[in-house]
Design brief:
Elements (H helix, E strand, L loop, with lengths): L2 E4 L22 H12 L5 E5 L8 H12 L4 E5 L10 H4 L6 E3 L5 E3 L2 E5 L12 H23 L4 E5 L13 H8 L4 E4 L13 E3 L2 E5 L10 E2 L2
Parallel strand pairs: 1-2, 2-3, 3-4, 6-7, 7-8, 8-10
Antiparallel strand pairs: 1-11, 5-6, 9-10
Length: about 230
């Protein structure tokens, strides 16, 4: 019963948005993800998917992509990305499939770990506006809500899923990293970065918290083992 992670699947089976416009390495990327997933993950395993699941704008379109994920082996725990406009009522999402759990102001469990999370947002940096500050503050609240619910339920070992990196382009400490340190979070899964932005990957241990980057093009479209 292993724990794996991947993010930024960017599926588009209904609206057929080609991903190879972002580079030849994205050509038929869904087939590569599926092949690697099936070769590695069993129905007893769990996989964390940290956002940007589908390009769909509406839930009706997004269902095609969710169905594709559902048919893959393992239990899936999913958090929201900045492109997941199809994402609607969290209560409705969490009754769709027995093998798929969606995080928003809540948490799920993997063995004796609580899996918490939120979408996140770009921390203060070079291009930071009042609009960014509003969303940033809201996402901090959502992260605290998720972790607090897990702590109140008695869980001490926490894994957090974010979509956005928890630090800015200069790798400076943020309110996100402070919250993660405050709660002694064990591991943080995040994605969002692609192309030239992969120069800003923040990985490894920082103040006893391990950060793991999981954008699918960064990990060669191959889910990585977390535990």
């Amino acid at each position: 019963m292993a724990l794996y992670a991947i993010s930024d699947l960017h599926l588009s089976f209904d609206n057929e948005k080609p991903m190879d416009v972002f580079g030849e390495h994205w050509l038929n990327h869904d087939k590569r993800i599926k092949e690697n997933w099936i070769n590695k993950i069993s129905n007893e395993d769990t996989i964390l998917i940290a956002g940007d699941i589908s390009w769909s704008m509406k839930m009706e379109q997004g269902m095609v992509d969710l169905e594709w994920i559902h048919k893959l082996p393992g239990r899936k725990i999913i958090s929201k990305g900045n492109h997941d406009y199809w994402w609607n009522s969290i209560s409705k999402l969490n009754i769709l499939y027995e093998d798929m759990n969606f995080i928003q102001n809540n948490f799920f469990t993997y063995e004796d770990y609580a899996v918490c999370g939120t979408r996140g947002w770009n921390p203060p940096g070079e291009k930071y506006t009042k609009h960014d500050e509003k969303i940033y503050n809201r996402e901090k609240i959502r992260l605290r809500l998720s972790i607090d619910k897990a702590k109140n339920a008695g869980y001490e070992k926490i894994i957090v899923m974010l979509h956005y990196p928890p630090v800015n382009e200069k790798f400076e400490e943020s309110d996100f990293t402070k919250i993660l340190q405050e709660h002694k979070v064990k591991k943080v899964i995040y994605g969002h970065l692609h192309g030239p932005s992969l120069r800003n990957v923040f990985e490894g241990k920082y103040n006893e918290v391990e950060y793991i980057m999981t954008s699918c093009d960064y990990i060669n479209f191959d889910p990585i083992k977390v535990l």
